[in-house]
Amino acid sequence: MGLPAVRNTDPGPVPPQVIDEGIPTAGLLAHVMVAKFADHLPLYRQEKIFGRAGLAIPRSTLAQWVGQTGVQLQPLVDALREVVLAQHVVHADETPVQMLAPGEKKTHRAYVWAYSTTPFSALQAVVYDFSPSRAGEHARNFLGTWNGKLVCDDFAGYKASFELGITEIGCMAHARRKFFDLHVANKSPLVEQALHSIGGLYEVERHAKDMSDEDRWRLRQEAAVPIAEKLHEWMLAHRELVPEGSATAKALDYSLKRWVAMTRYLEDGAVPIDNNQIENLIRPWALGRSNWLFAGSLRSGKRAAAIMSLIQSARINGHDPYAYLKDVLTRLPTQRASEIEQLLPHQWMPA
Predict the structure, then answer these.
(1) So where are the chain's domains?
(2) Burial grade of 126 (CB within 10 A; 0-12, 13-18, 19 or more)
(3) Which H helix or E strand runs over 168?
(4) How far apart are CA 114 and CA 220, in angstroms?
(5) Per-residue pLDDT, 103
(6) First vs last Cα of the chain: how many Å apart?
(7) Rounded to whole angstroms, what are the CA distances from 36 to 42, 231, 265, 312?
(8) 112 and 305 Cβ atoms separated by less than 8 Å
(9) Best CA proximity match to 59, nearest among 292, 305, 303, 308
(10) Residues 100-144: pLDDT tens digits?
């Protein structure tokens, strides 16, 4: 009896993969990235979940996949940074993340910096930058030669940038918070007046939200400028009446010191009243660090920032992060460098 015929089951050449000669498909890689960086599932938990499904994938392998995927996605993140810095108004904020110290078994405080377009911009994007400290040089290195209007809080790390041609835009929400905390503590009628006036400024913004920049500027000139002028006069008058060093004096001093920066939004309809946009976009890091606790190294922190930049930018553009990443990781190995921008979240169309 002859041997059974052997069928030719060779499927032909394998399409290029993000991880050469590796087992993970684009879909599996996207699943791991989204689980870790959008759903905040640490790799050791993912290892257990895969194990229950009969897949023995050690967390060391998962960590390699995350690192390699981050490297492959970096050109996209670099292009996203250029897109954000092409805007003349940018939000900035920073938040601490613990990082394992090299060669030691303890962690120290590193920082994630976030930069985004404004709510008024047609282009919605956010880029995260991981650094080993909160030193202002990290913001200057990221911003480079950019010299637009930077919406930020009162952190000293940005100050040197303002001497290099960048215009400081203050955050009205931070000023409001100072008065609100004071009101919660002692229900002062004096503080209520400040909150009422700031509330009036926000009421103008509610009406201006969907207007063009020109119409928003016009409405602010008509309705917000008079409120702001009266509020400033009121603050100056009452600052003379409150005791030096009191909580009320500190709240007033915060606003008076930053008044010019906080009211620059009135002169440009493209500038927002506060920094809430970026505070919302940096919140996923706060959720994430309570689950994965710390970054293993500066390099892994930078990889996390790269992947998070694309996932959160996909989200604010209304895309499902998994569908976006799976498609991008499928197309990336054969995408021409000159056409890389087609894969950015604000331009992406499913294949």
Answers:
(1) 172-272
(2) buried
(3) strand 167-169
(4) 28
(5) 65
(6) 51
(7) 6, 46, 37, 13
(8) yes
(9) 292
(10) 776 667 778 889 999 999 999 999 999 999 998 888 889 999 999
